[in-house]
Specification:
- The complex is a heterodimer of chains A (306) and B (283).
- With 306 residues, chain A is an all-alpha fold.
- Chain A has 13 helices and no strands.
- Chain A starts with a helix and ends with a helix.
- In chain A, 39% of the residues are buried.
- Chain B is mainly α and 283 residues long.
- Chain B has one domain: MetI-like (MetI-like fold).
- Chain B is built from twelve helices and no strands.
- The chains are: A mainly alpha (306), B mainly alpha (283).
- Chains A and B meet through helix 1, helix 6, helix 7, helix 8 and helix 10 of A and helix 5, helix 6, helix 10 and helix 12 of B.
Protein backbone atom coordinates (compact mmCIF):
# COMPACT_ATOMS: atom_id res chain seq x y z
CA UNK A 1 0.00 0.00 0.00
CA UNK A 2 2.70 2.46 1.02
CA UNK A 3 4.73 1.64 -2.07
CA UNK A 4 1.69 2.21 -4.26
CA UNK A 5 1.02 5.57 -2.60
CA UNK A 6 4.64 6.66 -2.88
CA UNK A 7 4.68 5.67 -6.56
CA UNK A 8 1.52 7.63 -7.32
CA UNK A 9 2.76 10.64 -5.38
CA UNK A 10 6.04 10.57 -7.28
CA UNK A 11 4.16 10.37 -10.57
CA UNK A 12 2.03 13.38 -9.61
CA UNK A 13 5.05 15.50 -8.75
CA UNK A 14 6.61 14.48 -12.05
CA UNK A 15 3.48 15.47 -13.96
CA UNK A 16 3.29 18.83 -12.21
CA UNK A 17 6.94 19.49 -13.09
CA UNK A 18 6.06 18.75 -16.71
CA UNK A 19 3.16 21.18 -16.51
CA UNK A 20 5.48 23.94 -15.29
CA UNK A 21 7.80 23.28 -18.24
CA UNK A 22 4.88 23.79 -20.65
CA UNK A 23 3.59 26.94 -18.95
CA UNK A 24 7.13 28.29 -18.81
CA UNK A 25 7.65 27.43 -22.47
CA UNK A 26 4.45 29.24 -23.45
CA UNK A 27 5.78 32.41 -21.83
CA UNK A 28 8.53 32.41 -24.46
CA UNK A 29 6.17 31.93 -27.37
CA UNK A 30 4.27 35.15 -26.82
CA UNK A 31 5.16 37.69 -29.45
CA UNK A 32 4.49 40.51 -26.96
CA UNK A 33 7.50 41.41 -24.84
CA UNK A 34 6.50 41.20 -21.15
CA UNK A 35 8.96 43.96 -20.29
CA UNK A 36 7.25 46.34 -22.72
CA UNK A 37 3.87 45.33 -21.31
CA UNK A 38 5.00 46.29 -17.80
CA UNK A 39 7.03 49.36 -18.68
CA UNK A 40 4.42 50.90 -20.94
CA UNK A 41 4.89 52.54 -24.31
CA UNK A 42 6.65 55.70 -23.19
CA UNK A 43 9.42 53.99 -21.19
CA UNK A 44 13.03 54.95 -21.94
CA UNK A 45 15.48 52.25 -23.05
CA UNK A 46 17.18 52.55 -19.63
CA UNK A 47 13.96 51.74 -17.74
CA UNK A 48 13.24 48.84 -20.09
CA UNK A 49 16.74 47.49 -19.48
CA UNK A 50 16.46 47.80 -15.70
CA UNK A 51 13.05 46.08 -15.64
CA UNK A 52 14.47 43.32 -17.82
CA UNK A 53 17.29 42.83 -15.31
CA UNK A 54 14.87 43.04 -12.39
CA UNK A 55 12.73 40.25 -13.88
CA UNK A 56 15.83 38.20 -14.59
CA UNK A 57 14.97 38.06 -18.30
CA UNK A 58 18.60 38.77 -19.25
CA UNK A 59 19.64 35.37 -17.81
CA UNK A 60 20.00 32.15 -19.85
CA UNK A 61 16.76 30.18 -20.22
CA UNK A 62 17.62 27.24 -17.87
CA UNK A 63 18.54 29.75 -15.14
CA UNK A 64 15.22 31.51 -15.74
CA UNK A 65 13.35 28.21 -15.47
CA UNK A 66 15.01 27.31 -12.17
CA UNK A 67 14.19 30.76 -10.87
CA UNK A 68 10.58 30.36 -12.10
CA UNK A 69 10.34 27.04 -10.22
CA UNK A 70 11.87 28.54 -7.08
CA UNK A 71 9.34 31.37 -7.24
CA UNK A 72 6.49 28.91 -7.74
CA UNK A 73 7.67 26.91 -4.74
CA UNK A 74 7.25 30.07 -2.69
CA UNK A 75 3.81 30.60 -4.22
CA UNK A 76 5.02 33.47 -6.40
CA UNK A 77 3.43 33.29 -9.88
CA UNK A 78 4.62 36.64 -11.14
CA UNK A 79 2.65 39.86 -11.58
CA UNK A 80 -0.31 40.61 -13.77
CA UNK A 81 0.63 42.88 -16.69
CA UNK A 82 -2.62 44.78 -16.53
CA UNK A 83 -3.80 44.68 -12.93
CA UNK A 84 -0.32 45.39 -11.51
CA UNK A 85 -0.90 42.92 -8.69
CA UNK A 86 0.73 39.59 -7.79
CA UNK A 87 -1.04 36.73 -9.61
CA UNK A 88 -1.13 34.52 -6.50
CA UNK A 89 -3.04 37.18 -4.53
CA UNK A 90 -5.52 37.68 -7.37
CA UNK A 91 -6.11 33.92 -7.56
CA UNK A 92 -6.30 33.45 -3.78
CA UNK A 93 -8.94 36.16 -3.43
CA UNK A 94 -11.11 34.53 -6.12
CA UNK A 95 -10.58 30.87 -5.34
CA UNK A 96 -13.28 30.64 -2.61
CA UNK A 97 -16.02 31.75 -5.06
CA UNK A 98 -14.91 29.10 -7.58
CA UNK A 99 -14.79 26.36 -4.95
CA UNK A 100 -18.27 27.35 -3.78
CA UNK A 101 -19.59 27.08 -7.33
CA UNK A 102 -17.86 23.74 -7.91
CA UNK A 103 -19.20 22.36 -4.62
CA UNK A 104 -22.75 23.25 -5.60
CA UNK A 105 -22.23 21.86 -9.11
CA UNK A 106 -20.86 18.55 -7.79
CA UNK A 107 -23.95 18.25 -5.58
CA UNK A 108 -26.19 18.70 -8.63
CA UNK A 109 -24.05 16.32 -10.68
CA UNK A 110 -24.55 13.66 -7.99
CA UNK A 111 -28.27 14.35 -7.67
CA UNK A 112 -28.83 13.92 -11.42
CA UNK A 113 -26.08 11.56 -12.56
CA UNK A 114 -26.14 8.98 -9.76
CA UNK A 115 -29.85 8.05 -9.82
CA UNK A 116 -29.91 8.19 -13.63
CA UNK A 117 -26.88 5.89 -13.90
CA UNK A 118 -28.15 3.42 -11.30
CA UNK A 119 -31.60 3.27 -12.81
CA UNK A 120 -30.22 2.80 -16.35
CA UNK A 121 -27.95 -0.03 -15.17
CA UNK A 122 -30.97 -1.97 -13.89
CA UNK A 123 -32.80 -1.49 -17.21
CA UNK A 124 -29.84 -2.38 -19.38
CA UNK A 125 -30.54 -2.19 -23.15
CA UNK A 126 -34.23 -1.57 -22.56
CA UNK A 127 -35.99 1.56 -23.87
CA UNK A 128 -35.69 3.47 -20.57
CA UNK A 129 -31.94 2.77 -20.47
CA UNK A 130 -31.59 3.90 -24.10
CA UNK A 131 -33.55 7.07 -23.33
CA UNK A 132 -31.36 7.92 -20.34
CA UNK A 133 -28.21 7.31 -22.36
CA UNK A 134 -29.43 9.59 -25.16
CA UNK A 135 -30.23 12.26 -22.56
CA UNK A 136 -26.77 11.85 -21.08
CA UNK A 137 -25.37 12.49 -24.57
CA UNK A 138 -27.48 15.65 -24.74
CA UNK A 139 -25.78 16.80 -21.52
CA UNK A 140 -22.35 15.94 -22.90
CA UNK A 141 -23.05 17.62 -26.25
CA UNK A 142 -24.62 20.80 -24.90
CA UNK A 143 -22.27 23.79 -25.03
CA UNK A 144 -22.11 25.18 -21.50
CA UNK A 145 -22.45 28.80 -22.59
CA UNK A 146 -25.69 28.00 -24.42
CA UNK A 147 -27.13 26.09 -21.44
CA UNK A 148 -26.16 28.99 -19.17
CA UNK A 149 -27.67 31.68 -21.41
CA UNK A 150 -30.89 29.69 -21.87
CA UNK A 151 -31.23 29.13 -18.11
CA UNK A 152 -30.75 32.86 -17.58
CA UNK A 153 -33.35 33.64 -20.22
CA UNK A 154 -35.99 31.29 -18.83
CA UNK A 155 -35.46 31.34 -15.06
CA UNK A 156 -33.95 34.75 -14.46
CA UNK A 157 -35.53 36.90 -17.21
CA UNK A 158 -38.93 35.34 -18.01
CA UNK A 159 -39.89 33.97 -14.60
CA UNK A 160 -37.60 36.19 -12.50
CA UNK A 161 -36.91 33.35 -10.08
CA UNK A 162 -33.18 34.00 -9.84
CA UNK A 163 -30.85 36.97 -10.32
CA UNK A 164 -29.43 37.48 -13.83
CA UNK A 165 -25.91 36.91 -12.57
CA UNK A 166 -23.29 38.09 -10.13
CA UNK A 167 -22.28 36.89 -6.71
CA UNK A 168 -24.29 36.65 -3.52
CA UNK A 169 -26.49 34.21 -1.64
CA UNK A 170 -27.86 30.81 -2.60
CA UNK A 171 -30.07 32.36 -5.29
CA UNK A 172 -26.99 33.48 -7.22
CA UNK A 173 -25.24 30.12 -7.20
CA UNK A 174 -28.13 27.95 -8.42
CA UNK A 175 -28.16 28.76 -12.16
CA UNK A 176 -24.37 28.63 -12.73
CA UNK A 177 -24.15 25.44 -10.64
CA UNK A 178 -27.03 23.92 -12.65
CA UNK A 179 -25.24 24.77 -15.89
CA UNK A 180 -22.06 22.99 -14.78
CA UNK A 181 -23.92 20.18 -13.02
CA UNK A 182 -26.20 19.31 -15.96
CA UNK A 183 -23.39 19.14 -18.48
CA UNK A 184 -21.00 17.13 -16.28
CA UNK A 185 -23.73 14.76 -15.09
CA UNK A 186 -23.99 13.52 -18.69
CA UNK A 187 -20.56 11.89 -18.32
CA UNK A 188 -21.25 10.93 -14.77
CA UNK A 189 -24.44 9.00 -15.40
CA UNK A 190 -22.67 6.97 -18.11
CA UNK A 191 -19.76 6.20 -15.82
CA UNK A 192 -21.93 5.22 -12.86
CA UNK A 193 -24.05 3.08 -15.16
CA UNK A 194 -21.06 1.12 -16.41
CA UNK A 195 -19.59 0.56 -12.97
CA UNK A 196 -22.98 -0.58 -11.66
CA UNK A 197 -23.27 -3.01 -14.58
CA UNK A 198 -19.82 -4.32 -13.70
CA UNK A 199 -20.99 -5.09 -10.13
CA UNK A 200 -24.43 -6.38 -11.11
CA UNK A 201 -22.97 -9.19 -13.22
CA UNK A 202 -20.97 -10.62 -10.30
CA UNK A 203 -21.75 -13.95 -8.66
CA UNK A 204 -22.78 -12.64 -5.26
CA UNK A 205 -25.54 -10.62 -6.88
CA UNK A 206 -26.86 -13.76 -8.56
CA UNK A 207 -26.74 -15.49 -5.17
CA UNK A 208 -28.70 -12.69 -3.55
CA UNK A 209 -31.32 -12.83 -6.30
CA UNK A 210 -31.50 -16.62 -6.03
CA UNK A 211 -32.10 -16.29 -2.31
CA UNK A 212 -35.16 -14.26 -3.20
CA UNK A 213 -33.96 -10.86 -2.04
CA UNK A 214 -36.15 -8.06 -3.31
CA UNK A 215 -34.70 -6.63 -6.57
CA UNK A 216 -34.58 -3.06 -5.26
CA UNK A 217 -32.69 -4.27 -2.21
CA UNK A 218 -30.25 -6.15 -4.45
CA UNK A 219 -29.55 -3.01 -6.44
CA UNK A 220 -29.59 -0.34 -3.76
CA UNK A 221 -27.97 -2.30 -0.92
CA UNK A 222 -25.98 -5.26 -2.23
CA UNK A 223 -24.71 -3.79 -5.50
CA UNK A 224 -24.54 -0.10 -4.72
CA UNK A 225 -22.49 -0.76 -1.60
CA UNK A 226 -19.66 -2.06 -3.79
CA UNK A 227 -20.15 0.38 -6.64
CA UNK A 228 -20.65 3.58 -4.67
CA UNK A 229 -17.07 4.37 -3.64
CA UNK A 230 -15.54 4.07 -7.10
CA UNK A 231 -18.45 6.13 -8.38
CA UNK A 232 -17.78 8.81 -5.78
CA UNK A 233 -14.06 8.63 -6.58
CA UNK A 234 -14.88 9.49 -10.20
CA UNK A 235 -15.60 13.02 -9.03
CA UNK A 236 -11.84 13.36 -8.62
CA UNK A 237 -11.43 12.60 -12.31
CA UNK A 238 -14.21 15.04 -13.23
CA UNK A 239 -12.15 17.95 -11.85
CA UNK A 240 -10.69 18.20 -15.35
CA UNK A 241 -14.16 18.83 -16.80
CA UNK A 242 -14.81 21.46 -14.14
CA UNK A 243 -11.52 23.19 -14.86
CA UNK A 244 -12.81 23.79 -18.40
CA UNK A 245 -16.33 24.62 -17.34
CA UNK A 246 -15.59 27.32 -14.82
CA UNK A 247 -14.01 29.63 -17.40
CA UNK A 248 -17.14 29.56 -19.57
CA UNK A 249 -19.75 29.49 -16.81
CA UNK A 250 -18.14 32.22 -14.71
CA UNK A 251 -17.86 34.38 -17.84
CA UNK A 252 -21.56 33.89 -18.66
CA UNK A 253 -22.82 34.51 -15.13
CA UNK A 254 -20.29 37.14 -14.03
CA UNK A 255 -19.26 34.85 -11.18
CA UNK A 256 -16.14 36.38 -9.56
CA UNK A 257 -13.96 33.26 -9.45
CA UNK A 258 -10.69 32.27 -11.09
CA UNK A 259 -12.48 31.29 -14.30
CA UNK A 260 -13.69 34.86 -14.77
CA UNK A 261 -10.19 36.06 -13.87
CA UNK A 262 -8.83 33.92 -16.71
CA UNK A 263 -11.55 35.13 -19.09
CA UNK A 264 -10.76 38.79 -18.38
CA UNK A 265 -7.07 38.00 -18.80
CA UNK A 266 -7.71 36.43 -22.24
CA UNK A 267 -9.15 39.66 -23.51
CA UNK A 268 -6.16 41.70 -22.36
CA UNK A 269 -3.56 39.02 -23.29
CA UNK A 270 -2.51 39.04 -19.63
CA UNK A 271 -0.38 35.89 -19.93
CA UNK A 272 0.82 35.57 -16.29
CA UNK A 273 -2.78 35.26 -15.10
CA UNK A 274 -3.71 32.71 -17.79
CA UNK A 275 -0.61 30.69 -16.85
CA UNK A 276 -1.38 31.02 -13.13
CA UNK A 277 -4.95 29.81 -13.50
CA UNK A 278 -3.76 26.98 -15.77
CA UNK A 279 -1.27 25.89 -13.10
CA UNK A 280 -3.87 26.02 -10.33
CA UNK A 281 -6.28 24.01 -12.49
CA UNK A 282 -3.55 21.46 -13.29
CA UNK A 283 -2.78 21.08 -9.59
CA UNK A 284 -6.51 20.57 -8.98
CA UNK A 285 -6.71 17.90 -11.70
CA UNK A 286 -3.59 16.06 -10.48
CA UNK A 287 -4.76 16.14 -6.85
CA UNK A 288 -8.26 15.04 -7.91
CA UNK A 289 -6.86 12.08 -9.86
CA UNK A 290 -4.55 11.20 -6.98
CA UNK A 291 -7.48 11.19 -4.53
CA UNK A 292 -9.52 9.05 -6.93
CA UNK A 293 -6.61 6.58 -7.25
CA UNK A 294 -6.10 6.39 -3.51
CA UNK A 295 -9.80 5.98 -2.82
CA UNK A 296 -10.21 3.17 -5.37
CA UNK A 297 -7.04 1.42 -4.17
CA UNK A 298 -8.36 1.40 -0.61
CA UNK A 299 -11.55 -0.27 -1.77
CA UNK A 300 -10.10 -2.57 -4.40
CA UNK A 301 -6.73 -4.19 -3.56
CA UNK A 302 -6.36 -5.35 -7.17
CA UNK A 303 -5.60 -1.77 -8.21
CA UNK A 304 -2.60 -1.60 -5.85
CA UNK A 305 -0.97 -4.68 -7.30
CA UNK A 306 -1.52 -4.04 -10.97
CA UNK B 1 -17.17 -4.98 -41.62
CA UNK B 2 -20.42 -6.26 -43.19
CA UNK B 3 -21.48 -7.69 -39.82
CA UNK B 4 -20.71 -4.37 -38.18
CA UNK B 5 -22.84 -2.50 -40.71
CA UNK B 6 -25.74 -4.85 -40.01
CA UNK B 7 -25.45 -4.18 -36.29
CA UNK B 8 -25.12 -0.44 -36.89
CA UNK B 9 -28.29 -0.39 -39.03
CA UNK B 10 -30.27 -1.88 -36.14
CA UNK B 11 -29.23 0.97 -33.85
CA UNK B 12 -31.99 3.45 -34.61
CA UNK B 13 -30.53 6.27 -32.51
CA UNK B 14 -27.21 6.08 -34.34
CA UNK B 15 -28.99 5.89 -37.68
CA UNK B 16 -30.90 9.10 -36.94
CA UNK B 17 -27.59 10.68 -35.96
CA UNK B 18 -26.04 9.62 -39.26
CA UNK B 19 -28.95 11.11 -41.21
CA UNK B 20 -28.60 14.39 -39.31
CA UNK B 21 -24.87 14.52 -40.06
CA UNK B 22 -25.51 13.84 -43.75
CA UNK B 23 -28.21 16.55 -43.92
CA UNK B 24 -26.10 19.19 -42.21
CA UNK B 25 -23.03 18.31 -44.29
CA UNK B 26 -25.05 18.69 -47.50
CA UNK B 27 -26.48 21.98 -46.24
CA UNK B 28 -22.95 23.20 -45.51
CA UNK B 29 -21.60 22.14 -48.92
CA UNK B 30 -24.50 23.70 -50.80
CA UNK B 31 -24.81 26.74 -48.54
CA UNK B 32 -24.45 29.20 -51.45
CA UNK B 33 -27.41 27.55 -53.22
CA UNK B 34 -29.65 27.19 -50.16
CA UNK B 35 -28.97 30.45 -48.35
CA UNK B 36 -31.74 32.95 -49.13
CA UNK B 37 -29.38 35.92 -48.64
CA UNK B 38 -25.72 36.85 -48.71
CA UNK B 39 -24.51 36.06 -45.16
CA UNK B 40 -22.30 39.17 -45.10
CA UNK B 41 -24.81 41.70 -46.42
CA UNK B 42 -26.23 44.13 -43.87
CA UNK B 43 -29.83 44.75 -44.85
CA UNK B 44 -31.41 48.12 -44.22
CA UNK B 45 -34.76 46.40 -43.64
CA UNK B 46 -32.93 43.80 -41.52
CA UNK B 47 -33.19 46.09 -38.52
CA UNK B 48 -36.31 47.47 -36.87
CA UNK B 49 -36.95 51.21 -36.83
CA UNK B 50 -35.25 51.34 -33.42
CA UNK B 51 -32.20 49.63 -34.93
CA UNK B 52 -32.78 46.31 -33.14
CA UNK B 53 -32.44 42.89 -34.79
CA UNK B 54 -35.64 41.55 -36.38
CA UNK B 55 -37.28 38.47 -34.85
CA UNK B 56 -37.99 35.44 -37.08
CA UNK B 57 -40.71 36.09 -39.69
CA UNK B 58 -41.60 35.27 -43.28
CA UNK B 59 -38.91 37.47 -44.77
CA UNK B 60 -35.99 36.51 -42.51
CA UNK B 61 -36.84 32.96 -41.42
CA UNK B 62 -34.67 32.87 -38.31
CA UNK B 63 -34.52 36.62 -37.77
CA UNK B 64 -31.56 38.94 -38.22
CA UNK B 65 -28.47 39.77 -36.16
CA UNK B 66 -27.24 43.03 -34.66
CA UNK B 67 -26.04 44.33 -38.03
CA UNK B 68 -29.21 43.35 -39.90
CA UNK B 69 -27.70 40.24 -41.50
CA UNK B 70 -29.86 37.18 -42.18
CA UNK B 71 -29.34 34.66 -39.36
CA UNK B 72 -30.40 31.61 -41.40
CA UNK B 73 -27.84 32.33 -44.10
CA UNK B 74 -25.16 32.95 -41.48
CA UNK B 75 -25.99 29.66 -39.76
CA UNK B 76 -25.63 27.78 -43.06
CA UNK B 77 -22.21 29.30 -43.66
CA UNK B 78 -21.39 28.78 -39.98
CA UNK B 79 -21.99 25.06 -40.50
CA UNK B 80 -19.08 25.12 -42.96
CA UNK B 81 -16.79 26.65 -40.33
CA UNK B 82 -17.90 24.21 -37.64
CA UNK B 83 -17.60 21.13 -39.84
CA UNK B 84 -14.31 22.12 -41.49
CA UNK B 85 -12.68 22.81 -38.12
CA UNK B 86 -14.38 19.87 -36.45
CA UNK B 87 -13.34 17.36 -39.09
CA UNK B 88 -9.88 18.76 -39.92
CA UNK B 89 -8.85 19.31 -36.30
CA UNK B 90 -10.11 15.91 -35.27
CA UNK B 91 -8.46 14.16 -38.22
CA UNK B 92 -5.16 15.76 -37.24
CA UNK B 93 -5.70 14.86 -33.58
CA UNK B 94 -6.52 11.23 -34.41
CA UNK B 95 -3.46 11.07 -36.67
CA UNK B 96 -1.16 12.39 -33.94
CA UNK B 97 -2.81 10.18 -31.34
CA UNK B 98 -2.53 7.06 -33.49
CA UNK B 99 1.10 7.75 -34.34
CA UNK B 100 2.02 8.29 -30.69
CA UNK B 101 -0.16 5.52 -29.30
CA UNK B 102 0.87 2.86 -31.83
CA UNK B 103 4.57 3.72 -31.59
CA UNK B 104 4.49 3.71 -27.79
CA UNK B 105 2.55 0.46 -27.75
CA UNK B 106 4.69 -1.33 -30.32
CA UNK B 107 8.17 -0.08 -29.54
CA UNK B 108 7.63 -0.08 -25.77
CA UNK B 109 10.71 0.37 -23.61
CA UNK B 110 11.75 3.85 -22.58
CA UNK B 111 10.29 5.40 -25.76
CA UNK B 112 6.90 3.98 -24.85
CA UNK B 113 7.20 5.13 -21.25
CA UNK B 114 8.26 8.62 -22.32
CA UNK B 115 5.33 8.96 -24.74
CA UNK B 116 2.77 7.68 -22.26
CA UNK B 117 4.10 9.89 -19.45
CA UNK B 118 3.73 12.80 -21.86
CA UNK B 119 0.09 11.89 -22.45
CA UNK B 120 -0.40 11.73 -18.65
CA UNK B 121 0.97 15.23 -18.52
CA UNK B 122 -1.37 16.42 -21.28
CA UNK B 123 -4.30 14.85 -19.41
CA UNK B 124 -3.45 16.99 -16.39
CA UNK B 125 -3.49 20.08 -18.58
CA UNK B 126 -6.95 21.62 -18.80
CA UNK B 127 -7.40 21.44 -22.58
CA UNK B 128 -9.53 24.58 -22.81
CA UNK B 129 -7.03 26.68 -20.85
CA UNK B 130 -4.14 25.38 -22.95
CA UNK B 131 -6.12 26.13 -26.11
CA UNK B 132 -6.89 29.61 -24.78
CA UNK B 133 -3.24 30.29 -24.04
CA UNK B 134 -2.18 29.00 -27.47
CA UNK B 135 -4.92 30.92 -29.27
CA UNK B 136 -4.01 34.10 -27.41
CA UNK B 137 -0.39 33.65 -28.46
CA UNK B 138 -0.96 32.67 -32.10
CA UNK B 139 -3.32 35.14 -33.74
CA UNK B 140 -6.54 33.15 -34.16
CA UNK B 141 -7.75 32.26 -37.65
CA UNK B 142 -9.68 29.27 -39.00
CA UNK B 143 -6.63 27.02 -39.48
CA UNK B 144 -4.86 28.18 -36.33
CA UNK B 145 -7.97 27.33 -34.31
CA UNK B 146 -8.03 23.87 -35.93
CA UNK B 147 -4.34 23.42 -35.15
CA UNK B 148 -4.75 24.51 -31.53
CA UNK B 149 -7.64 22.09 -31.06
CA UNK B 150 -5.65 19.25 -32.65
CA UNK B 151 -2.71 19.96 -30.36
CA UNK B 152 -4.82 19.56 -27.21
CA UNK B 153 -7.15 16.78 -28.37
CA UNK B 154 -4.96 13.88 -29.51
CA UNK B 155 -4.47 12.46 -26.03
CA UNK B 156 -7.63 10.33 -25.79
CA UNK B 157 -6.89 8.58 -29.09
CA UNK B 158 -3.27 7.99 -28.09
CA UNK B 159 -4.36 6.22 -24.90
CA UNK B 160 -6.92 3.96 -26.58
CA UNK B 161 -4.57 3.08 -29.45
CA UNK B 162 -1.73 2.42 -26.99
CA UNK B 163 -3.79 -0.10 -25.00
CA UNK B 164 -4.99 -1.83 -28.18
CA UNK B 165 -1.48 -2.00 -29.65
CA UNK B 166 -0.10 -3.46 -26.41
CA UNK B 167 -2.68 -6.23 -26.63
CA UNK B 168 -1.91 -6.86 -30.32
CA UNK B 169 1.83 -7.09 -29.82
CA UNK B 170 1.31 -10.17 -27.63
CA UNK B 171 -0.52 -12.00 -30.42
CA UNK B 172 1.12 -14.81 -32.35
CA UNK B 173 0.79 -13.40 -35.86
CA UNK B 174 2.89 -10.41 -34.84
CA UNK B 175 5.50 -12.71 -33.41
CA UNK B 176 5.41 -14.69 -36.65
CA UNK B 177 5.97 -11.53 -38.68
CA UNK B 178 8.87 -10.62 -36.45
CA UNK B 179 10.32 -14.11 -36.74
CA UNK B 180 10.02 -13.85 -40.52
CA UNK B 181 12.32 -10.86 -40.28
CA UNK B 182 9.94 -8.01 -41.06
CA UNK B 183 11.24 -4.58 -39.97
CA UNK B 184 9.19 -2.85 -37.27
CA UNK B 185 7.82 -0.01 -39.42
CA UNK B 186 6.48 -2.65 -41.80
CA UNK B 187 4.95 -4.73 -39.00
CA UNK B 188 3.35 -1.59 -37.59
CA UNK B 189 1.89 -0.49 -40.92
CA UNK B 190 0.91 -3.86 -42.43
CA UNK B 191 0.08 -6.04 -39.42
CA UNK B 192 -0.85 -3.77 -36.54
CA UNK B 193 -2.57 -0.81 -38.18
CA UNK B 194 -5.40 -2.73 -39.90
CA UNK B 195 -6.46 -4.07 -36.52
CA UNK B 196 -6.57 -0.57 -35.10
CA UNK B 197 -8.90 0.74 -37.81
CA UNK B 198 -12.15 0.13 -35.87
CA UNK B 199 -10.83 2.09 -32.87
CA UNK B 200 -9.52 4.85 -35.10
CA UNK B 201 -12.91 5.04 -36.80
CA UNK B 202 -14.72 5.35 -33.47
CA UNK B 203 -12.47 8.17 -32.31
CA UNK B 204 -12.58 9.86 -35.69
CA UNK B 205 -16.34 10.18 -35.09
CA UNK B 206 -16.66 10.72 -31.34
CA UNK B 207 -13.80 13.21 -31.39
CA UNK B 208 -15.58 15.48 -33.87
CA UNK B 209 -18.23 16.32 -31.27
CA UNK B 210 -15.45 17.33 -28.87
CA UNK B 211 -13.72 19.51 -31.47
CA UNK B 212 -16.99 21.12 -32.60
CA UNK B 213 -17.77 22.02 -28.98
CA UNK B 214 -14.24 23.30 -28.35
CA UNK B 215 -14.34 25.46 -31.49
CA UNK B 216 -17.71 26.89 -30.46
CA UNK B 217 -16.41 27.59 -26.96
CA UNK B 218 -13.24 29.29 -28.23
CA UNK B 219 -15.31 31.39 -30.63
CA UNK B 220 -17.73 32.24 -27.82
CA UNK B 221 -14.77 33.43 -25.72
CA UNK B 222 -13.72 35.64 -28.64
CA UNK B 223 -10.52 33.76 -29.48
CA UNK B 224 -11.85 31.39 -32.11
CA UNK B 225 -12.66 32.12 -35.71
CA UNK B 226 -12.63 35.89 -36.20
CA UNK B 227 -15.46 37.97 -37.69
CA UNK B 228 -16.78 38.45 -40.29
CA UNK B 229 -16.41 34.67 -40.92
CA UNK B 230 -19.66 33.26 -39.54
CA UNK B 231 -19.25 30.62 -36.83
CA UNK B 232 -21.95 29.38 -34.48
CA UNK B 233 -20.01 30.17 -31.31
CA UNK B 234 -19.01 33.52 -32.76
CA UNK B 235 -22.63 34.51 -33.53
CA UNK B 236 -23.49 33.92 -29.86
CA UNK B 237 -20.39 35.83 -28.75
CA UNK B 238 -21.39 38.83 -30.89
CA UNK B 239 -24.96 38.92 -29.67
CA UNK B 240 -24.75 37.84 -26.04
CA UNK B 241 -25.27 41.32 -24.62
CA UNK B 242 -28.55 41.58 -26.58
CA UNK B 243 -29.78 38.08 -26.00
CA UNK B 244 -32.53 39.02 -23.53
CA UNK B 245 -34.24 41.10 -26.22
CA UNK B 246 -33.16 38.90 -29.15
CA UNK B 247 -33.01 35.34 -27.74
CA UNK B 248 -33.18 33.76 -31.23
CA UNK B 249 -29.59 34.92 -31.77
CA UNK B 250 -28.49 32.53 -29.02
CA UNK B 251 -31.15 29.87 -29.41
CA UNK B 252 -30.68 28.90 -33.09
CA UNK B 253 -26.87 28.76 -33.19
CA UNK B 254 -26.94 27.05 -29.77
CA UNK B 255 -29.29 24.34 -30.99
CA UNK B 256 -27.14 23.91 -34.11
CA UNK B 257 -24.02 23.25 -32.01
CA UNK B 258 -25.92 20.87 -29.74
CA UNK B 259 -27.45 18.90 -32.62
CA UNK B 260 -24.14 18.46 -34.47
CA UNK B 261 -22.21 17.45 -31.33
CA UNK B 262 -25.01 15.10 -30.31
CA UNK B 263 -25.21 13.49 -33.75
CA UNK B 264 -21.47 12.74 -33.85
CA UNK B 265 -21.65 11.40 -30.29
CA UNK B 266 -24.47 8.93 -30.94
CA UNK B 267 -22.97 7.81 -34.26
CA UNK B 268 -19.57 7.29 -32.62
CA UNK B 269 -21.19 5.36 -29.80
CA UNK B 270 -23.19 3.28 -32.28
CA UNK B 271 -20.00 2.56 -34.26
CA UNK B 272 -18.25 1.42 -31.09
CA UNK B 273 -21.09 -0.97 -30.29
CA UNK B 274 -21.26 -2.23 -33.87
CA UNK B 275 -17.52 -2.74 -34.34
CA UNK B 276 -16.89 -4.30 -30.96
CA UNK B 277 -19.98 -6.11 -29.67
CA UNK B 278 -18.15 -7.30 -26.53
CA UNK B 279 -18.10 -3.67 -25.40
CA UNK B 280 -21.80 -3.26 -26.00
CA UNK B 281 -23.45 -1.00 -23.47
CA UNK B 282 -20.23 -0.31 -21.63
CA UNK B 283 -18.21 2.85 -21.58
Amino acid sequence: MLRFLAGRLFQSVFILLGVTIITFGLLFLIPADPVRMIAGRSATPQTVESIRRQLGLDQPIPVQYVRYLANLARGDMGRSYVQKAPVNELIASRLPATLQLMGAAILIQLMIGLPAGIFASTRRNRPSDKAIMVFSFVGISAPQFVVGLLLIYVFAFKFELFPLGGYGGIGHVILPALTLGITVSGWYSRMSRSSMIEVLRQDYIRTARAKGVNEWRVVLVHALRNAILPIIAMIGIDIGLYAQGIVVVEAVFGWPGIGQLAWLAIQRVDIPIIMGVTLVAAVGIVVGNLCADIATSFIDPRVRHS
Amino acid sequence: MGEAWKRFKKDRVALVGAIIIATISLAAVFAPLIAPYDPFEQFFEGLTIEGAPRPPDGEFWLGTDLLGRDLFSRLLYGARTSLIIGIAANAAAVLIGTAFGATAGYVGGWVGIAIMRFTDLMMAFPALLLAIALAAILKPSLWIVALVIALVNWVQTARVIYTQTRALVEREFIEAARAAGAAWPRILMVHVLPHLVPHILVWATLGISVTVLLEATLSFLGIGVQPPTPSWGGIIFESQSYFLSAPWLVFFPGISILVVALAFNVVGDGLRDALDPTQRGRD
